[in-house]
Structure formats: C-alpha cells, structure tokens
Design a protein that fits this description.
- The chain is of the alpha+beta class.
- The protein is about 40% helix and about 25% strand.
- The chain has a single domain, classed as Bit1.
- The protein has a five-stranded mixed sheet with strand order 3-4-1-2-5, with helices on both faces.
Length: about 130
C-alpha cells in the first residue's frame, strides 16, 4: 500500500511564497514535533506502521489548496473524524497578517493513501 502526507494550504491568504513554504514545513513536521513539544521524549515517540512505511519509502507529500479558513477547518475536522493524524498550523502573525494569529494550513498523515484520499481526494492540487 502506498503512503503519503497531504498538506492543505489556504490560498486565500496570498502569503509570500517563502511564508507558504515555511508554513508547509511546519505542517509536515508536526506529526513528530507536537509530541515532543507536549513533553514526549524523542526516543519514546511511537510511529504508526503507515508512518514508518512513509519514512522508509521516500516521504511522499502532496500539496492541495482550499480557499478559506472555513474550508481548511472542515478538511481538518473530517480528517480527525476519520481517525487520521492531522495537525493544524496557526501562524503567530509576526511577519504577516498584521500581528493576528492566522490558521494557514494543515497536514494530514502520514498514512495510507486510500484513507487520506477519502478526505482530500476532491481538493485541487496547489
């Protein structure tokens, strides 16, 4: 079975390209960094079978787009409801967004492609 991670990016924010890349990078690493930030020791993080396969097979990532915060939150919630690993990224607003914390993107997975596609398969590629 194929594995992947999907990054869902808000296109309506019209972020600078570098900002988009940074936000997507935060999203893609969040499945590892969030447990550590919550106090888990790095040597105690347990990866799912799918996450291990994803790491061993080349880190396939797909970036798709949504056009509003409402759409982003809907995709994020559908992923959580489907039992998928999903992490929402909120930018602090220090360099863009006039100091207002802003939800920019989310990462879904890594997991098996067929499971993620049930949530993101209808979204347009970025």
């Amino acid at each position: 079975m194929h594995t992947k991670q999907v990054i869902v990016m808000r296109r309506d924010l019209k972020m600078r390209r570098g900002k988009e890349i940074a936000q997507g990078s935060h999203a893609t690493m969040s499945f590892l960094t969030r447990p550590i930030q919550s106090g888990a020791r790095m040597d105690r993080i347990t990866l799912s079978k799918a996450a291990k396969e994803w790491i061993e097979s080349g880190f396939t990532k797909v970036c798709v787009r949504v056009d509003s915060e409402e759409q982003l939150l809907d995709v994020y919630q559908r992923a959580k409801d489907a039992g998928l690993e999903a992490h929402l990224i909120t930018d602090s607003g220090k360099t863009e967004f006039d100091g207002v914390p802003t939800k920019t993107c989310c990462a879904i997975g890594p997991d098996y492609s067929d499971l993620i596609d049930k949530v993101t398969g209808d979204l347009e590629l970025y």
